[in-house]
Design goal:
flat; Thrombin, subunit H; 3 domains; Rossmann fold; about 50% strand; eight-stranded antiparallel beta barrel; Porin; alpha+beta; about 475 residues
Length: about 475
């Protein structure tokens, strides 16, 4: 036994001698990144889509606050002063020379891949209203004229695709390349184009943040809040999410250095800002936060997903389903999903229901691992059964509920959901069935014989218990 213990001690001491660990201090984003933004092709026409794409990319990068942007117009003045402006195609080799003049380390080339607008026949769907943004007013004004004889001029489909390629200005090497596409159908040329470019701009904003993520360090922390380096000067905004993790470690195995990433421990949301610091609320924590830990910006979030089942105490109604939970880290969040189950009607028959639940939750208590809130849910269902003549009939069944919901965190990416609800009313109507085929399909009212009672209605009562699991993506 003693020999075995000595053997293990020798192994541990030998391992520690071979493997040395050193904590790596986080690299804090302290300076804006200089960035040149240029078209990959000539784009002198201010009304051209290629010219405007460069303007949009430059405007979005500037708005993020983490880039010092040199766009085509800024560089033109520099180039003209030094007799270096090139009106023709801008290639990768010329980018190196431009970067030296502007003092930038990276250049971004914008290349138009596809742009098409054409009228298509309208469907029966009502056109969705859209908002406008100011950056592309010039494009819309230039594109508002309709071609003579163009079919369906009030229902234009706009298709846009372009790439952004980042180049190291010192070596000319391509660092990364991204493809962005957007499409919209509806309205005239100007309106369709505005909506398409707005979609592209949202995707572009995510890409630009991913290309230069903000990194910070924990200065102070308590149970609810922490203080981080970085503020308005680097483009941090209220609502920005940071992931907190322990420090990376550099370990040496013989002559080889290996960096071991730190362990993630929490998510925080920025509440208040100064020029160079911010105060953030801990919205989710599964480990201990220590002063000096690193903070990395989360640039994009997917909605959470959930599966849940509900059971009624009075009439044995039940449903099972799942769906999407939007803004799961906010005090107020919204759900939409799909469900199926059984509900008892006024004739004591258990009918099949299939529907779409909509839910709104406002948290009263919100801690990093637990929340309790009030809920308002609306269940829009189709209910199915047979009428008194044996026809398979269906009807609309709507039920609003109010209640309480509590969520317990069980792991960084998973929660338990428990809910208690009460029905505040219901609506059943439109029992009917279809007969015929093809164009001869007709809807007939359901047959309810008076001796068996009136047409069935669904009137849920009592309390409903819900149990579910939520899965988070970050």
């Amino acid at each position: 036994m003693v020999k075995l213990i000595i053997k293990h001690l020798i192994f541990i001491l030998t391992f520690l001698g071979v493997c040395e660990a050193q904590k790596n201090q986080p690299e804090i984003t302290s300076q804006k990144r200089p960035l040149i933004i240029l078209p990959a092709e000539q784009g002198d026409d201010a009304t051209s889509i290629h010219y405007q794409l460069v303007e949009i990319v430059a405007a979005e990068a500037s708005q993020l606050g983490r880039y010092n942007v040199f766009n085509r117009q800024d560089l033109k003045k520099i180039f003209e002063e030094q007799a270096l402006y090139m009106a023709g195609i801008i290639n990768d080799s010329s980018i190196i020379e431009f970067g030296e003049i502007a003092g930038a380390k990276e250049a971004m080339l914008i290349k138009l891949i596809q742009f098409d607008q054409r009228g298509i026949p309208k469907t029966d769907e009502k056109e969705e209203e859209t908002n406008f943004f100011d950056v592309i007013v010039a494009i819309v004004d230039a594109s508002a004229t309709k071609e003579k004889g163009e079919p369906h001029p009030d229902n234009i489909q706009t298709v846009l695709a372009f790439s952004i390629k980042t180049i190291d200005v010192e070596t000319g090497q391509t660092l990364n390349s991204h493809y962005i596409s957007a499409e919209h159908t509806g309205g005239g040329r100007g309106k369709s184009l505005k909506t398409t470019l707005r979609q592209a701009r949202r995707k572009l904003s995510v890409k630009l943040r991913q290309m230069y993520k903000l990194t910070s360090q924990v200065l102070e922390s308590d149970r609810k809040e922490i203080m981080l380096v970085l503020g308005e000067d680097m483009g941090v905004k209220k609502g920005t999410i940071f992931e907190i993790s322990s420090l990376d470690e550099t370990k040496i195995f013989g002559d080889r250095k290996i960096v071991v990433p730190g362990k993630s421990v929490a998510l925080v949301r920025v509440l208040e800002l100064s020029k160079d610091a911010n105060r953030s609320q801990i919205v989710r924590r599964w480990g201990k936060i220590i002063n000096g830990y690193k903070a990395t910006e989360k640039t994009h979030f997917m909605p959470a997903y959930y599966i849940a089942g509900s059971f009624g105490t009075d009439q044995s109604d039940f449903n099972i389903g799942g769906g999407i939970n939007f803004n799961p880290f906010n005090k107020t969040n919204f759900k939409i999903g799909f469900q199926f189950g059984s509900a008892q009607d006024s004739r004591n028959n258990h009918d099949l229901i299939i529907g779409v639940p909509f839910g709104l939750t406002a948290n009263i208590i919100h801690t990093p691992s637990f929340s309790l809130g009030g809920t308002i849910n609306l269940h829009a269902n189709a209910v199915f059964r047979q009428d008194d003549d044996g026809n398979s009939v269906s009807a609309f069944y709507g039920i609003p509920k109010v209640g309480l919901e509590t969520i317990f965190m069980t792991s960084p990416h998973r929660d338990w959901i428990f809910g208690l609800e009460y029905s505040v009313g219901s609506m059943t109507g439109g029992w009917g069935y279809t007969k015929g085929e093809g164009e001869d399909v007709e809807t007939e009212p359901a047959v309810w014989k008076s001796k068996m009672g009136p047409s069935p209605a669904l009137n849920p009562s009592g309390l409903f218990f819900t149990v579910g699991v939520r899965f988070l993506n970050f």
